[in-house]
Design a protein that fits this description.
Elements (H helix, E strand, L loop, with lengths): L4 E5 L5 H14 L11 H9 L8 E6 L2 E10 L10 E8 L8 H15 L4 E7 L3 H9 L3 E12 L2 E11 L1
Parallel strand pairs: 4-5
Antiparallel strand pairs: 1-2, 2-3, 3-4, 5-7, 6-7
Length: 167
C-alpha cells in the first residue's frame, strides 16, 4: 500500500465516496445482489445504520480520497440468539484493486469484530465473485452454506454462498 493511506471510522462526509464505490460494484455485476444504484438518501440510511461502538463502518483513505470501505452489520437483526454473529462486507474502488486495500480492510474489520466481542463473522458472497471468495478464504473463512441459483440478474442465475469464521 501507498503512503498517506489509512483506515478510520466513516464520517458523514464519506458517504459520497462509499456510494461511488458501491455503485461501481453494482454496475460491474455479481459483486452485490443490488441491481439499482444507490443515491444520496440510500447512502445516508446505510451510514445511519452503523455505529462505531457496535456496528462500525470503516473507510480506507488514500491521499484524502475514500478508496474502499468495510462494514460490520448484524446477522439476522433482532434475533437475540445471533447477537454474537455479524456479517462483514468490504468493497474497493475499481481503480485501486489488487494493491492490498481489500486485505487491509478485512483484517481491520476482523480485528474490530474481536474487540467488540463477536464470536462469528459471516461473509455472504455471490458465487461469481471469485476475488471475494479468494480473499475470505485467505483470512481463514470456510464455506458453510451454498444456496444454488437464488440470485437472478436479468435471467442469469447465480448462487449465494455463506463463508464463516469463528473469531
Amino acid at each position: 500500500m501507498r503512503e498517506h493511506s489509512f483506515i478510520r471510522d466513516a464520517q458523514p462526509g464519506d458517504i459520497a465516496g462509499v456510494i461511488t464505490i458501491y455503485n461501481h460494484a453494482i454496475e460491474a455485476g455479481f459483486q452485490t445482489a443490488f441491481t439499482d444504484p444507490f443515491d444520496e438518501e440510500s447512502g445516508a440510511a446505510f451510514f445511519a445504520a452503523h455505529s462505531p461502538d457496535r456496528y462500525p463502518l470503516f473507510v480506507h483513505v488514500l491521499e484524502n480520497q475514500v478508496v474502499g470501505w468495510a462494514s460490520i452489520t448484524p446477522y439476522r437483526q433482532g434475533r437475540k440468539a445471533f447477537r454474537y454473529t455479524v456479517e462483514v462486507s468490504y468493497f474497493v474502488h475499481h481503480d485501486h484493486l489488487s494493491v492490498g486495500i481489500g486485505s487491509a480492510l478485512l483484517e481491520h474489520t476482523l480485528n474490530a469484530c474481536k474487540e467488540l466481542g463477536y464470536k462469528t463473522a459471516i461473509a455472504i458472497i455471490l458465487s461469481k465473485n471469485t476475488p471475494s471468495i479468494s480473499m475470505v478464504e485467505k483470512f481463514g473463512f470456510a464455506k458453510w452454506a451454498h444456496l444454488p441459483a437464488v440470485a437472478d440478474f436479468d435471467g442469469e442465475a447465480c448462487d449465494h454462498v455463506y463463508y464463516g469464521l469463528k473469531l
